[in-house]
């Protein structure tokens, strides 16, 4: 018996609960990356157009052929408020996949932000709009709108596989993707880690703790210090 082929455009996906997204938005990407096992962080080539840009939301994934943005337009027609467009543009920098007009449309739809493994343009206008846009570069060339791609399939972006519905959190340090099933646990761990780091910073600034409590033990384990020896 033959099986039907899944469509290239998947319209309905399971999104991370909005309450979890709101909680995740309170944490730096570095905290989330650490407690997620130091995985899920996209390549540093994918950077915000302005360091103050931040976003959080479920991934709506898009695969395009280099230099063509037809499927981005299709995805925007399917996007829901709060979605983050995660675009596998194959790392191509020969032309921009998005610019001010598309960003303005994203804002009107309520899209939370865009991650592009490719180039964009109209960067000054996008910065002025304040829309969270992450890309690997800028190029004034425009794209074609001719080649089919896929929507809401797994994509490879900056060395990380991103699935539709994954939690995406991004700030000035970069972008982190977390699988939905892991989000509740990751958020619990993030709360503890943030509290621990806040206490550590207070200890440094007050002069009460000027070196890590774990340092001597780590040096002994590494063979730098003898058992019982301290710095």
From TrEMBL:
Residue ranges of every copy of the WH2 domain listed in the record: 196-213
Cofactor: a divalent metal cation
Gene3D superfamilies on file: Ribonuclease E inhibitor RraA/RraA-like (3.50.30.40)
Superkingdom per UniProt: Bacteria
Protein name: Putative 4-hydroxy-4-methyl-2-oxoglutarate aldolase
Organism in which the protein naturally occurs: Telluria mixta
